[in-house]
Amino acid sequence: MISNAQNENGTFSADVKLHLHIGDQRFELGHLGLGFALLGDAHAIDATEGEIETIVDEKVTRWPVRFTSPITGESKRFTFEAV
C-alpha cells in the first residue's frame, strides 16, 4: 500500500490497493502490468477466470479476466486477458 502522506519532495502519493478475486477468495497483488500481474504471496490457484480489483484513493474498479498462464505455487507471476 502506498501512503497518502506528503513525501519529502512536497508531493502526495495515492493510496493504492490491488487484489485478485476468485470466487469468495481474495489475493493481494504486488504488481499489476499490461497483461500480467504478480501475486503478493505465491499460491497455486486452480481457476481459469477471476476479477482484478484496483482501489485508488478509495475508488474501486473491478474487471473480469481470463488467465492465459497457470498460477502455480512456484511463481507469483501470471498473465491474463480481459474478458
Layout: helices, strands, pairs:
Layout: E1 16-22, E2 25-33, E3 36-39, E4 49-56, E5 59-67, E6 77-82
Antiparallel strand pairs: 1-2, 1-4, 2-3, 3-6, 4-5, 5-6
Brief write-up:
With 83 residues, the protein is mostly beta strands. The chain is 0% helix and 52% strand. The chain has a six-stranded antiparallel beta barrel with strand order 1-2-3-6-5-4.
Distance between the termini: 27 Å
Structural class: mainly beta
Low-pLDDT windows of residues: none
Q: What is the chains' assembly state?
A: single chain
Rg, nearest Å:
14 Å
Shape type: globular
Number of helices: 0
- Portion of residues in beta strands equals over 45%
Order of helices and strands: EEEEEE
The helical percent reads: under 10%
Structural summary, described in words:
The protein is globular, with a radius of gyration of 14 Å. With 83 residues, the chain is mainly beta. The protein has no helices and 6 strands. A hairpin with a 2-residue loop joins strand 1 and strand 2. Helices cover 0% and strands 52% of the residues. Strands 1-2-3-6-5-4 form a 6-stranded antiparallel beta barrel. It has one domain. The chain starts with 15 loop residues before the first strand and ends with a strand.
